[in-house]
Give the backbone structure.
Amino acid sequence: MTTPSPADPSDSEDACQSGEDALASLVMSFGGSVSTAFHERTVTVGCDQAFALLRSLRDNAATRFEQLIDLCGVDYSNSAPVENDHPERFAVVYHLLSVSRNDRLRVVAYLAEDSPRIRSVVGIWACANWYEREAFDLFGILFEGHPDLRRLLTDYGFIGHPMRKDFPLSGHVEMRFDEKKGRVVYEPVSIDPRVTVPRVIRQESVE
């Protein structure tokens, strides 16, 4: 869903700035940073400044990111240890598109492990509603100010958040239909968790 931006490039001095300079200046004003890898730009900003920055990225005439393409959660708990690579376990990633400027941008906000919460951007892009519900359901990230923050993909009585790295592969419970009770029942998982090892095909065995 494209949210109209109130910015008018014809009435703004920001339109005279180059896109790169304007972006860097805007991000720095919110205490963030811009990095480039594989010809893609990523903005990193604190979770307390994320909402204000994202709103400015939409409304500023030099950026005009009118559309939110995607929003997702990330759990970095098992990532390779790289110094200062991921300062917190959780992060919310926003993928933005400027239709008028044919430009794309990734924005990352890291969240504390003990309290993964951030302000909802439904007020900026209405399409964020279900994206944020999905991130809440799968990662347990709380979006403050969300109009209806309920689970989206799992069952009503589901326990835990299945996309977290510490969630067991087989889950905590399994469900089946009980003929006697005439309803679905939940029971402890009956299978033993195991680690599968891919089969290695050696060259000599092929020959």
